[in-house]
Amino acid sequence: MMNKDIKLCGIGNALLDMQFEVTDKEINDLGLEKGTMTLVVDDVQETVLKMMGNRTKYVSSGGSAANTVIAFSSFGGKAAYKTMIGDDEDGFFYANEFQNLGIILDAPVDEKDHTGRCLVLITPDSERTMLTSLGATQNYKKDFVSDETIKRSEWIYIEGYKLSDDIGYEAVLHACNVAKKYDTKIALTFSDTFIIELFKERLNSIASLSDLIFCNETEGMAFTETTNPESALESLVKRFKNIAFTKSAKGSIISWNGNKINIPAYEAKPVDSTGAGDMYAGGFFYGLIYSNSIEKAGHLASLSASKIVSQHGARLKSSHTKLYSKIYS
């Protein structure tokens, strides 16, 4: 019997998150569509940073799958993360933070490119608009995929954002093939509607290999080309074995082996939606792997997401242990 001592291994981008509070007018002045993630060149980020001036910012190691792995680890789960960083101060900050969190970071250093960076602009309605410069993380290729880490993992968790370029897609596909070889389960998050719209064929190929899909209503409708969440969910259930379908303030639905479980949303006063889906996945994985109840895993996920939207930043400031106790006591 293979020793699966790593319970969750994320595969995704390494981004240093920099979060700012902005107005709707500033979003409009920048010509951005609120609530979306846009890939930009470094010059665009520098222009926005100058516009932000000296206003308060919150900086942390991030990336969608990284946020999930960090949440999972903070609950007490044994985790690893596969990505790529630059040979710079941001890369050192990133690696040092993962070391302090007790997460195995399998991240080659790219000496020719900078560590990825994501500017998160948060409007008064708590919506986040992201401008991302991938930097070194876009150079993560299949040659860097360590079979050993995946072999030791119970689950790998893939962010859809990695499918936006040829190199990333090839690396993810290789990781999935390795996972199948060693009976490691595969989970995928759709990440964003633009991934669905521009890279649907790639997303389909990885989704077909996956044991669990995470998506929200908007992503579900885009993927299934339907006009309402109910139809989207029905279509997804027919195609995939297990689904975590989130509906923001309306809670979520877990479809597990064909059985649907309605999970209510927990009360929250939203100030920042950054990382809500990532936190949901982290809580769900911890409940799924360390307990035997899918329903309770869904409740832990929902409660965790409610806490993360009630604060600034994608890193939960309150006690993970207390959250777990509320569901499992």
Q: How would you characterize this protein structure?
A:
With 329 residues, the chain is an alpha/beta fold. The chain has a single domain, classed as Ribokinase (UDP-N-acetylmuramoyl-L-alanine:D-glutamate ligase, 3-Layer(aba) Sandwich). The chain is built from 13 helices and 16 strands. It has helices spanning 24-29, 42-52, 64-75, 89-101, 147-151, 166-181, 193-198, 200-207, 217-224, 229-239, 276-290, 294-308, 320-328; strands spanning 6-11, 15-21, 37-39, 58-62, 79-82, 85-86, 104-106, 109-110, 116-122, 128-133, 153-159, 185-189, 212-216, 242-246, 252-256, 259-263. The strands form three sheets. The protein has a nine-stranded mixed sheet with strand order 7-5-1-11-12-13-14-15-16, sandwiched between helices. A five-stranded mixed sheet has the order 3-10-9-2-4. Strand 15 and strand 16 (259-263) form a beta hairpin. Helix 3 (64-75) crosses helix 11 (276-290), helix 11 runs antiparallel to helix 12 (294-308) and helix 12 runs antiparallel to helix 13 (320-328). The longest helix is centred in the middle third of the chain and has 16 residues, at 166-181. The mean pLDDT is 94.
